[in-house]
Amino acid sequence: MIHQLYCTHCTYGSSYLHQSSDANMASQAFEYSARAGSVPREVSHDFFRRLESTLYYQLPGPSADSPARKLSTPEELPNRLVYFPSLQRLRVAANISYRPEDSQGRPHSYFAHVLLTDTDRVAASWSAT
Prior knowledge:
Oligomer: single chain
């Protein structure tokens, strides 16, 4: 089965992995985490832990003064596409996109739409046919 995760910077109230029912904690910034997904909760933390080091986005250009960094909209910046046929027993494909700020208004965020399969449970490779 192919699962999906939507990963971005979260609050304690919006994290799929670490939700807090405490109203005081719900709006506090948490970390980059899965916000939603089709992965069963009992394995979602393990799956995310195995792939989180690959889910990053760096603005293009060598410095903050680079023309690419001064583009005005996220649509003008490139997406980062990744595919790992075997990453700690996961097959992973992800589209990672830049966002000017996270849900708390902090600058320079990103989100990832991740497709993944546990290769221990599914032996067949992905195919376009």
